[in-house]
Design brief:
Number of helices: 5
Number of strands: 11
Number of domains: 2
CATH superfamily of the largest domain: Gcn5-related N-acetyltransferase (GNAT)
Distance between the termini: 34 Å
Order of helices and strands: HEEEHEEEHEEEHEHE
Radius of gyration: 17 Å
Strand content: 25-35%
């Protein structure tokens, strides 16, 4: 039986993120200003064709698969990002002293966009904040680190957009933000998970130290209408 995390975008769109859903019974996607992720009930050529017909824009979208696969026409693959899906089943009790974690709101979106453009933690758009639970660390009025939530799949919650400005690395900000998010998720009787590029050794080391373990390799196909 397929695990709900094997098809993360689809299962988020039919459960915890269904308030953001667009599409049909077979094919679902987010508004382009929220997230580029798309999901299928079944990964068939017919689903790819239906998505092509339904989606109202020509921006790149991202299809997530636990297996390498050939993306059918009429889609063009721009790149395939190879990643690791990690899950934490431990109960976290550790706290990490540091700067105050400020709730991020719409007024902070320009700074959030600038920080994610600089650090490239993954796709982030004007309404990605709608996923919720974003917290940030500021130096004066300047946002220098942040993390939040993205896919919410039944009782699993994804930690996402973990990023620190290059001038502020080595201060433990990412660890502090991760611990906050993990404790928040566990307090809600849910399970934290995340995705990371398989070549991001620095981040993987931090995640392992916090109790995350590799579940599967996973592939992110960035594709566009041909």
């Amino acid at each position: 039986m397929e695990h709900v995390l094997d098809n993360p975008a689809w299962n988020a769109l039919i459960s915890g993120n269904k308030n953001l859903v667009k599409g049909s019974e077979q094919v679902k996607y987010f508004d382009k200003e929220v997230s580029p992720f798309v999901g299928f009930n079944e990964n068939t050529p017919e689903s790819f064709q239906l998505l092509y017909e339904l989606i109202p824009h020509n921006n790149p979208v991202i299809f997530i698969s636990p297996d390498k696969m050939d993306i059918p026409d009429p889609w063009k693959v721009l790149r395939c990002v190879e990643g690791i899906q990690m899950v934490c089943d431990d109960v976290i009790k550790e706290t990490y002293p540091g700067p105050e974690l400020i709730p991020l709101t719409i007024e902070h979106v320009p700074q959030m966009l600038a920080l994610t453009k600089l650090t490239n933690p993954g796709p982030f758009a004007e309404k990605t904040i709608d996923f919720g639970h974003y917290r940030g660390i500021f130096d004066g009025d300047r946002l220098v680190a942040m993390a939040g939530q993205r896919l919410h799949i039944f009782n699993y919650a994804e930690i996402s957009a973990v990023c620190t400005h290059p001038d502020y690395l080595g201060r433990g900000y990412a660890r502090q933000l991760l611990l906050y998010q993990m404790n928040r998720i566990i307090a809600a009787s849910e399970i934290p998970f995340l995705h990371v590029r398989n070549d991001n050794e620095r981040a993987i080391k931090v995640y392992h130290s916090l109790g995350f373990a590799k579940r599967i390799e996973i592939f992110f196909y960035v594709m566009q209408k041909a």
